[in-house]
Design a protein that fits this description.
The complex is a heterodimer of chains A (536) and B (124).
Chain A lengths: L12 H11 L2 E5 L5 E4 L2 H5 L4 H4 L4 H5 L5 H13 L3 E9 L5 E12 L5 E10 L1 H23 L3 E6 L4 E4 L1 H7 L3 H4 L17 H7 L4 H5 L2 E4 L7 E10 L2 E13 L5 E10 L1 H61 L5 H28 L7 E3 L1 H11 L1 H6 L3 E6 L6 E3 L1 H18 L5 E10 L20 E9 L6 H4 L19 H11 L3 E6 L6 E8 L1
Parallel strand pairs in A: 13-15
Antiparallel strand pairs in A: 1-2, 1-5, 3-4, 4-5, 6-7, 6-11, 8-9, 9-10, 10-11, 12-14, 15-16, 16-18, 17-18
Helix pairs in contact in A: 11-12, 12-17, 13-15, 15-17
Chain B lengths: L2 E6 L3 H13 L3 E6 L5 H8 L3 E4 L8 H10 L8 E5 L4 H6 L3 E2 L2 E5 L4 H13 L1
Parallel strand pairs in B: 1-2, 1-3, 3-4, 4-6
Antiparallel strand pairs in B: 5-6
Classes of the chains: A alpha+beta (536), B alpha/beta (124).
Chain lengths: 536, 124
């Protein structure tokens, strides 16, 4: 064709073939009967045949290159329809027998009147892609299989917090099926009643600071950088209470971005229980041991006290008689004589009181414990110290909770406790002081029970107790003395004849009742608060 | 006539001083015996109006002395008050000085307590 007559963009057959040969694309052309009239030399690279081997043959020849029946039908259908088709995927064998993946696109060639003249199309060798794709799929299956078949409960979430793996062990441990969480962000439902980040979520979000708020026992992984660890009891997880160790770690892409997080769950309930039981047994043992030591001490003190009492009281009796004799024999107009005799007499009285205290301290073995309303005992004790209260014009406030349970006490011994505590309070306060006495029932609710002391095994969790609080408005106890108040012979009233045995006797009596006593400075005001907890 | 008081107690210093203190009042004639085993012969000889008797003594327990006194026709009627360090003042006070039917005074004891006890006992 003369170039001057060509329409713009028009390409001659020759030009087209030159273009096709140099493009490296496999281009082909058939006539209306399906015979190859042209195929670019690229065919020798893709299929191992030369163009000459193909040109002149029809479709059936080409289609015989190892196409399966289904694909052959598909291809024949497309050609018979004489319409455009795009990216038809087929698998055929090269001349050397190797399998090749082809992607065929074609369009019908029409003459000027629209009559069908054949097809023109391209073939693309997609073998490389397909093999890579198959390899990738196979790798993914392998990874999935590793996770799925791991005996460690494991799940994986994406950077969008969507679950992509939830293995069988995880199903078993949590009781939550993979189908219920895969492709959702609902993995928290396996562990919590309301939405809450799992450790893997924290890794995805990079909010490591949240760990301490959400998980009391937590740490950074020592093995994997960026890994986090937490553990704790989970109630009714997969049908039972479990102690779970969670370890989560980030998964990075080639550029180092976190694209997912993997979390594993280890159920160590049995060893944790054993560990806790061991710790509890050890604690109990310590309690029993200290009780035994205390009992042994008491025994020794008791034996010693009764022996000492007799041996000391006799010389005291001599001294007292001697002093009384001298009172009537030496001239008392000399002030020093009177003073000295007065001192000796007073010292005898003090020594006698110390011995009395020692005997009280050691004679607590006989107890007659009965359920008693402590209001009544408090009133009797108040009556016994009425003179001292009146002398210092001290006001007493009482509050007894409605339904206050009867406490198991030895009435006399407990009265002794109250008198001792009230005398201490009165001694500590100036005139017009105030004593408040409060009694109420409570329930020990485990480790954080009514006093925070239930954990020492004094009370069974859930048991009912009667609580008595006595507060004064005195100066309080210096912090350094608080720990010593129950020590025998510790007193701040030595000058006034205090034996230092009062509070140790009080504690012994409370111990004998199986109760608890604590002495603290008041938080709300100046003064001391004594708290007694008794069994009911 | 001063009242005759016998004190049986192994603590010699104590008995000596009690004797001094009581006799100083001029109302009492006091005899002292520091051996439990010699308590009965002393009582038979002295014929006291009242006896103060210690309980813990090395040679003979006060309760045995009391038994001997109660079994002897001469001393049977003499009131005996146990004067001892083995009981406590409060125990005595709580029980109006009588424990198990016997009268007690707890050591250390003041002279006025001794006198009250003597007067109270002899009045009965």
């Amino acid at each position: 064709m003369d170039d001057s007559r060509r329409e713009p963009g028009y390409v001659t057959d020759l030009e087209f073939r030159q273009l096709a040969e140099s493009s490296g694309i496999l281009i082909w052309e058939t006539d209306s009967k399906g015979r190859y009239t042209y195929i670019s030399r690229q065919v020798s690279v893709v299929l191992g045949y030369s163009p000459a081997e193909i040109i002149g043959n029809d479709l059936s020849y080409f289609l015989s290159f190892g196409l399966d029946e289904e694909q052959a039908e598909l291809v024949s259908g497309k050609f018979e329809a004489r319409k455009c088709f795009d990216k038809l995927e087929i698998t055929i064998r090269r001349k050397d027998g190797q399998q090749t993946f082809l992607e065929i696109s074609a369009m019908p060639r029409l003459d000027e009147k629209g009559g069908f003249r054949g097809f023109i199309g391209v073939m693309k060798d997609t073998t490389g892609y397909r093999l890579a794709e198959n390899k990738l799929r196979s790798n993914q299956e392998f990874i999935k299989s590793i996770i799925q078949n791991s005996a460690v409960a494991t799940f994986v979430i994406t950077s969008e917090h969507k679950v992509i793996y939830w293995n069988r062990a995880c199903e078993e441990l949590t009781g939550t099926k993979a189908v219920d969480v895969i492709n959702t962000g609902m993995h928290w439902t396996a562990f919590y009643k309301s939405p809450r980040p799992c450790v893997a979520d924290i890794i995805i979000d990079g909010n490591v600071g949240d760990m301490s708020k959400l998980y009391p026992v937590q740490a950074q992984s020592e093995l994997i950088e960026g890994g986090l660890h937490s553990e704790g009891w989970y109630i009714d997880l997969g049908g039972k209470d479990r102690y779970i160790i969670f370890d989560a770690a980030p998964i990075y892409d080639a550029d180092g971005n976190v694209v997912a997080a993997i979390e594993t769950l280890h159920d160590i309930s049995e060893s944790k229980k054993a560990q806790e039981e061991l710790a509890e047994a050890y604690r109990q043992l310590k309690v029993y041991q200290s009780q035994l030591i205390q009992a042994a001490k008491m025994d020794t003190v008791g034996t010693l006290a009764s022996g000492v009492a007799h041996e000391v009281k006799n010389p005291l009796a001599v001294i007292l008689q001697g002093v009384e004799y001298l009172f009537h024999s030496v001239p008392l107009d000399h002030a020093d004589n009177r003073l000295v005799l007065g001192y000796i007499s007073e010292a005898v009285g003090r020594a006698d009181r110390i011995i009395k205290g020692l005997l009280d301290f050691s004679s607590l073995t006989e107890m007659r414990v009965e359920p008693e309303q402590i209001e009544g005992v408090i009133d009797s004790a108040l009556l016994l110290v009425k003179n001292s209260l009146d002398r210092k014009k001290i006001k007493v406030f009482k509050w007894f909770a409605p339904g206050l349970p009867a406490a198991k006490i030895d009435r006399n011994k407990f009265e002794q406790v109250l008198v001792n505590l009230l005398v201490n309070a009165i001694d500590a306060m100036p005139e017009h002081g105030e004593v408040s006495i409060k009694a109420y029932g409570s329930t020990i609710s485990g480790a954080n029970g009514v006093t925070g002391e239930a954990g020492d095994g004094t009370f069974e969790p859930g048991s009912r107790v009667a609580v008595l609080e006595i507060e004064d408005s005195g100066p309080g106890i210096p912090e350094e003395n608080l720990e010593k108040v129950f020590d025998p012979f510790f007193t701040t009233k030595r000058q006034r004849g205090g034996s230092g045995l009062g509070l140790s006797i009080v504690r012994n009596i409370i111990d004998m009742h199986g109760g608890k006593i604590s002495v603290d400075n008041r938080k709300d005001a100046r003064g001391v608060r004594v708290k007694i907890i008794l069994k009911t | 006539m001063p009242k005759k008081i016998l004190i049986i107690d192994d603590e010699a210093a104590f008995t000596y001083l009690v004797k001094l203190n009581l006799e100083k009042t001029g109302k009492y004639d006091v005899r002292v015996e520091n051996k439990g085993a010699l308590g009965l012969p002393a009582a038979i000889e002295f014929k006291p109006d009242m006896i103060f008797l210690d309980i813990v003594m090395p040679d003979m327990d006060g309760s045995d002395v009391a038994l001997q006194l109660s079994e002897n026709s001469v001393t049977r009627a003499v009131p005996v008050v146990f004067l001892t360090a083995i009981i406590d003042k409060e125990e005595v006070d709580d029980n109006d000085s009588v424990i198990g039917g016997r009268k007690f005074l707890a050591k250390p004891v003041r002279v006025d307590e001794l006198i009250n006890c003597i007067e109270g006992t002899l009045r009965k």
